[in-house]
Amino acid sequence: MAESRPAARPLSPHLQIYRWxxxxxxxxAHRVTGTAxxxxxxxxxxxxxxxxxxxxxxxxxxxxxxxxxxxxxxxGYTFVLLHHMVGGLxxxxxxxxxxxxxxxxxxLAKYSVVVxxxxxxxxxxxxxxx
Length: 130
Known about the structure:
The chain is an all-alpha fold. About 75% of the residues lie in helices and about 0% in strands. α1 (about 20-55) packs antiparallel against α2 (about 55-65), α1 packs across α3 (about 70-95) and α3 (about 70-95) runs antiparallel to α4 (about 100-130).
């Protein structure tokens, strides 16, 4: 009886094959930030539940949000939200048929980090000075 062997087919390339690029990293970051938004939205829902549950629960939620760890989480959530938004705008530019040149693609990816970081700092500066 002849031995049954699978057909010799090429394997699909994986991340180890490709050379990392800015657009690849930002594509992965866009997916990660989209997933992280679920956790941040859960925290907002918990805060709203605490607010609806009465003064004691709301005070506890405010204390947690006002702690150093709470502020770090809120800062991270702000960055994730803005980074995902800027990444979405980058995709929108592509949907309009622009920005496909190699250097433009790379610049859009690099600037998305800079813009989202700058917007995060701006939001927090405004929030902390009021």
